[in-house]
Design a protein that fits this description.
With 243 residues, the chain is α+β, with helices and mostly antiparallel strands. It contains 6 helices and 15 strands.
């Protein structure tokens, strides 16, 4: 039986944590099989030579729920978050072998909402691929827990995330405010079937791939807070728990 108390402490203090072997080889293979069987001709799909992404991932393959919410993940969510967390966003990323795509250091400041309504502290609205994004008040962002499920071994060679530990504790700020001589970058190596937990406000980046190996990741975001009415989470779903 896995114990996630250490991961909860690391997530709170460092802004990230890594858990190994949450999914078996069989579970990973079945997840990949279901993804590969999808019809990708949809506005939520982004496919280029350097990136394949699926927005609203859980909506497109609802049969994945039983695989993704296995006993280990349910226990992890309960330990690090509590009983009342629900899914707010699900994205699938595939960084193909040899991809030259990279992402500079940033914080995840946008959430997806069902409709646009101008309200108080909700700002920096966007509209991409048929869905609205907005930057919510900082307490909403601080509450979110991101869980990245790795379907491939991830390391420096195929674009593993780099993070700056404890950078999530300072609120919202620009990379230009970082004193790069004082901070330490950490490569987040995650094995196949493992997961990475992170807080949206931690500064993170992704390098170009330099090897011929894929990096397939399911990116899930969870919260236990509702938005200011009438705003609603676009992908809000209760966590599937086996009866």
């Amino acid at each position: 039986m896995m114990n996630f108390k250490k991961n909860k402490l690391e997530l709170t203090e460092q802004g990230f944590s890594i858990c190994s072997d949450l999914y078996t080889e069989t579970e990973v293979a079945e997840i990949i099989r279901l993804v590969d069987s999808m019809d990708t001709d949809h506005s939520s799909f982004l496919k280029t030579t350097s990136l394949f992404a699926i927005r609203q991932f859980m909506n497109h393959i609802p049969e994945l729920s039983k695989l993704i919410y296995n006993e280990n993940l349910l226990k992890l969510i309960k330990e690090v978050g509590g009983e009342n967390y629900f899914l707010t966003k699900a994205i699938y990323f595939d960084k193909p072998a040899g991809s030259n795509w990279f992402v500079a250091y940033h914080q995840d400041l946008s959430i997806s909402v069902a409709d646009k309504t101008e309200i108080g502290e909700y700002e920096n609205w966007t509209f991409k691929k048929g869905q609205y994004g907005v930057q919510p008040p900082v307490h909403i962002l601080e509450n979110i827990i991101t869980i990245r499920i790795h379907l491939d071994e991830t390391n420096e060679g195929n674009g593993a995330l780099k993070v700056i530990p404890k950078s999530h504790t300072k609120g919202i700020y620009r990379p230009t405010a970082i004193n790069w001589e004082e901070v330490k970058e950490v490569f987040c190596k995650v094995g196949k079937g493992g997961v990475m937990l992170m807080k949206p406000l931690i500064f993170h980046s992704s390098s170009r791939s330099t090897t011929n190996t894929q990096r397939r990741v399911i990116h899930l975001e969870f919260s236990n807070q509702e938005l200011a009415a009438p705003l609603r989470w676009l992908e809000r779903k209760e966590i599937l728990v086996e009866s």
